[in-house]
Amino acid sequence: MNEESVFTLHRGTAPLLVSLPHVGTLIPDDIASRLHPHALEVQDTDWHLETLYAFVRDLGASTIVPRFSRYCVDLNRPRENTPMYAGANNTELCPTRAFTGEALYRDGQAPDDVEVTRRVRLCWQPYHDALSGELGRLKAVHGHAVLFDAHSIKSELPWLFEGRLPDLNLGTAGGASCAPELRGALGAVLAAQTQFTQVVDGRFKGGTITRRYGRPADGVHAVQLEMCWRCYMAETPPYQIDPARAAAVLPLLRQLIEAMLAFAPAPGGAP
After folding, report:
1. What kind and span of H or E run contains 147?
2. 194-224, pLDDT tens digit by residue?
3. How far apart are the C-alpha atoms of 54 and 48, rounded to whole Å?
């Protein structure tokens, strides 16, 4: 594992960076040998998002895409390993449980603090350094930068949340990670359609990437979209993309991305 193998960064011309932190599926042999067989299926991957969001490059957006599975280290968790959602079940920086609550590691094989630190150094930190650097470049060129952190998840996961999630879950850290005008514009796009259920700052308000880099007062605005698998794919193995469903949701995703690109902070600072 080296920095060049951790992620792929495409530098675009627009002020938008699209991050896909959970699409990686690679697990190194030294980790794989310690996992239960079910963990090797990497079932909690954000399946097919790199394909689904491929259109953003044609709109001039930058993209950053990891290679390694979140089961190695979760790029959307704080390096301090504090819970993202207090009072609820959470997965860790280096997860030991799947979203079902099942143990990922064989008995006695979970990573210790030394191993977690190594994975942060080799995988987590390079991704975040690149993400931060690209946002800095975009802000220097355009005067501001916008970050769209794209995720997907199974619709029902009782260990993590009750009931069934809305189809589309927009997170802005309760309005703290972006300007209210941007939050309103994206919320309006979601509210203007009736095909997909939606919520703003519901169960998923944004993870570490949204909260860490969304600094409206500094000219960087970040949002997270958690989309249910049922919007575009089968929710059971082998987790195949459904072309008809994907075709139905793509225009809405494009509208959200276009709203991100159209956003411009008020002159003289954050709105």
Report:
1. strand 145-153
2. 999 999 999 899 999 999 999 999 999 999 9
3. 10
Contact 169, 225 (CB under 8 A): yes
Q: How far is CA 266 from the centre of its chain?
A: 27
10 Å Cβ neighbour count for 240?
11
**Domains in the chain: boundaries:** 3-262
DSSP secondary structure letters along 43-93: TTS-TTHHHHTTHHHHTT-EEEEE-B-TTT--TTS-TT---SSTTS----S
Average pLDDT over residues 43-65: 98
- State the average pLDDT for the chain: 94
State whether the Cα torsion 245-251-254-259 is positive or negative: negative
Which CATH architecture does the domain made up of 3-262 adopt?
A: 3-Layer(aba) Sandwich (3.40)
Spatial CB neighbours of 237, under 8 Å, sequence gap ≥ 6: 41, 43
| Cβ-proximal residues to 149 (8 Å cutoff; 6+ apart), any chain | 19, 21, 76, 206, 207, 209, 210, 222, 223, 224, 225
Strands 62-66 and 7-10, bridge-based pairing: antiparallel
Question: Is the separation of the CB atoms in 102 and 38 below 8 Å?
Answer: yes
Tokens at 94, concatenated: 């280096």
Question: In terms of residues, how long is the chain?
Answer: 271
pLDDT at residue 56 tops 70: yes
Q: What pTM was estimated for this model as a whole? A: 0.95
**Closest C-alpha among 88, 212, 228, 74 to residue 151:** 228
Reading the block at residue 214, the tokens are 């969304």
Q: Which residue has the tokens 């690149």?
A: 130
Order of all β-strands in the sheet with 168-171: 7-10, 62-66, 16-19, 145-153, 220-228, 168-171, 198-200
